[in-house]
DNA sequence: TAAAAAACAGTAATCATTCCTGTTTTCTGT
DNA sequence: ACAGAAAACAGGAATGATTACTGTTTTTTA
């Protein structure tokens, strides 16, 4: 069975994801770690991210310029994606309950909700 | 300048997108049209979808299994993506205003908001 | 401490999407 | 209607993110 053995690389990958608020891509995680772990393979990063998603330890929050962006903060919050710089920001709010109730009433099972605003972020607007 | 000449293929592509509630992928649109238009190229479908997005005539609503899914209904509504069958459903509600206000107050410019719930849809639950 | 299982590196394959080049269609002014 | 000029297109090659494969290394277990 997979995901049951200790692995120093898996641990390093998870720590890297959990210690940033940048909502990283697989490549970003790989770039961060390759100096510290010279023989790390990009495939290992992808494989472990897939495992973390199965385990519910990370979630996919958005696809930005063809790259999947993930988050180890699995608490109930929304995101804002800047279409200019690709930055992903956290948004904390719980004003979506009417939608959730409507879905539940209609027999849809919500396993995850993804709230993404697109636009231009504060930093980009100020150049 | 692009997008200024008439094109029968462009018209057919837009009509196909506008006449379905399936939130199609580029490939789906191509499959629908290739019998009617035998020499249609998949690249043409992609090129025209990109043009429609620039013109604001279609929006990207979600990425499902690596495929971008689009919608010609650009009215303010959210979507529900079934993780089992990949179907994308429309959700009509306007209960997201507190989030929008918070963003606007903080100098974020919203050009588009993307509200996606993930889970298992009614049809899949009932097998 | 020796199999057995899991994880890995490195590379090849896949697949959606974009790019390129030569051809066809559409437009515009006469 | 007709001849450039501009735009759109087909078909195929290129790109780039992600996944799969194979032989090797690490971890577990007993």
Keywords:
Dna Ligase, domain 1, 5 helices, three-stranded mixed sheet, 2 domains, two-stranded antiparallel ribbon, 127 residues, alpha+beta, Arc Repressor Mutant, subunit A, homodimer, DNA-binding
Q: What sequence of helices (H) and strands (E) makes up the elements of chain A? A: HHHEEEEHEH
Oligomer: homodimer
The CATH topology of the largest domain in chain A is: Arc Repressor Mutant, subunit A
- Measured by DSSP, the beta-strand proportion of chain A falls in 25-35%
**What sort of overall outline of chain A do the alpha carbons produce when their principal axes are compared?**
flat
Q: Total strand count of chain A, please?
A: 5
Low-confidence stretches of chain A: none
Distance between the termini of chain A: 50 Å
Amount of helix of chain A? 25-40%
CATH architecture of the largest domain in chain A: Orthogonal Bundle
Question: Measured on Cα atoms, how large is the radius of gyration of chain A?
Answer: 17 Å
DSSP summary: helix tally of chain A: 5
Which class do the helix and strand fractions of chain A yield? alpha+beta
- Counting structural domains of chain A, the number is 2
CATH superfamily of the largest domain in chain A, called what? Answer: Winged helix-like DNA-binding domain superfamily/Winged helix DNA-binding domain
Largest sheet of chain A: 3 strands, mixed
* Spatial ordering of strands, largest sheet of chain A: 4-3-5
In the CATH scheme, the class of the largest domain in chain A would be Mainly Alpha
Q: What integer is the average pLDDT of chain A?
A: 86
Summarize the largest interface: chains and residue counts: A-B, 35 and 35 residues
């Amino acid at each position: 069975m997979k995901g049951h053995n200790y692995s120093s690389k898996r641990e390093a990958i998870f720590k890297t994801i959990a210690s940033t608020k940048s909502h990283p891509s697989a490549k970003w995680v790989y770039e961060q770690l390759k100096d510290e772990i010279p023989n790390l393979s990009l495939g290992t990063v992808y494989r472990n991210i897939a495992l973390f998603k199965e385990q519910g330890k990370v979630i996919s929050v958005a696809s930005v310029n063809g790259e999947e962006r993930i988050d180890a903060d699995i608490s109930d919050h929304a995101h804002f994606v800047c279409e200019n710089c690709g930055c992903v920001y956290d948004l904390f709010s719980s004003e979506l309950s009417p939608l959730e109730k409507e879905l539940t009433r209609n027999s849809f099972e919500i396993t995850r909700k993804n709230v993404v605003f697109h636009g231009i972020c504060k930093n980009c607007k100020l150049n």
